[in-house]
């Protein structure tokens, strides 16, 4: 027992606490370990164990998942310390229909999920990060940080972001990282996982969808697809089309800033951002 890793120790305690009978490791991320577990050999569930000394982002996300109450998101059964005992989602991600040529189907599913996540609850949401605060990497960056040929894109996207934040808007609890690979199929339909936990303009919720699914830059940079997404989100969710495209462009530039800070390439955002800004200008 003394030589157990932090994951093994937390897993052992969780197995006893919730009377679980079998565990199988299924994923390890930068912030957590995920196990598929069995209850009495019948029902499957998941255990998500946060790694020691991780930031508050993951804990805030877990609290928001709990607040969702299984409506539009995976259900949380219980939490203890840094361990979350939750619904097992055994299906694939919402990226699969897109890769099979059914992008419109995925978009409709995302609209349904957003409607469920943004539905008013009886209790106030947990402590969340203000949306503007999450844009600090964009506002604190400098044009010279960007490739020479893309500095105009940075300046334009930052201007759009400032304009969006200067106009008062509704403030709702936001998943904050909603995209195709953070939505899994289940016996209850499509459900969201891994929220960031932000508070701000509901329109921001669709911003990251324009850059996704991962590994499909051609699709993301297609002006027709950008227009179709904006139309769908405007029609189905009642969002203002100009703000939809503004947040999509601002988020693309923000994501590029995050990637540059982590020494990752920003090729995808350099391909998508000009088309998002163009669509914004025309909206």
UniProtKB/TrEMBL annotation:
InterPro entries: Kinase-like_dom_sf, NH2Glyco/OHUrea_AB-resist_kin. It comes from the Bacteria. SUPFAM superfamilies: Protein kinase-like (PK-like). This is Aminoglycoside phosphotransferase family protein.
């Amino acid at each position: 027992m003394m030589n157990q890793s932090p994951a093994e120790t937390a897993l052992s305690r969780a197995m006893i606490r919730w009377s679980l009978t079998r565990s199988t490791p299924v994923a390890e991320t930068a912030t957590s370990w995920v196990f598929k577990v069995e209850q009495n050999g019948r029902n499957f569930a998941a255990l998500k164990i946060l790694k020691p000394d991780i930031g508050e982002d993951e804990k805030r996300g877990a609290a928001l998942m709990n607040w969702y109450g299984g409506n539009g998101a995976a259900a949380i059964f219980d939490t203890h310390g840094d361990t979350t005992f939750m619904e097992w989602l055994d299906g694939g991600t919402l990226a699969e229909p897109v890769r099979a040529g059914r992008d419109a189907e995925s978009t409709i599913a995302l609209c349904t999920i957003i409607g469920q996540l943004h539905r008013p609850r009886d209790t106030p949401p947990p402590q969340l990060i203000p949306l503007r605060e999450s844009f600090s990497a964009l506002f604190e960056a400098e044009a010279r940080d960007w490739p020479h040929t893309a500095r105009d894109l940075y300046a334009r996207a930052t201007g759009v972001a400032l304009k969006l934040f200067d106009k008062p808007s509704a403030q709702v609890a936001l998943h904050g990282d909603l995209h195709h690979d953070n939505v899994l199929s289940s016996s209850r339909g499509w459900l969201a996982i891994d929220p960031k936990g932000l508070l701000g303009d509901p329109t921001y919720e669709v911003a990251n969808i324009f850059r996704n699914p991962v590994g499909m830059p051609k699709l993301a940079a297609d002006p027709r697809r950008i227009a179709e997404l904006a139309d769908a989100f405007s029609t189905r969710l009642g969002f203002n089309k100009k703000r939809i495209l503004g947040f999509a462009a601002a988020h693309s530039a923000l994501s590029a800033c995050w990637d540059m800070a982590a020494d990752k390439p920003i090729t995808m955002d350099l391909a998508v951002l000009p088309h998002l800004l163009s669509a914004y200008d025309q909206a």
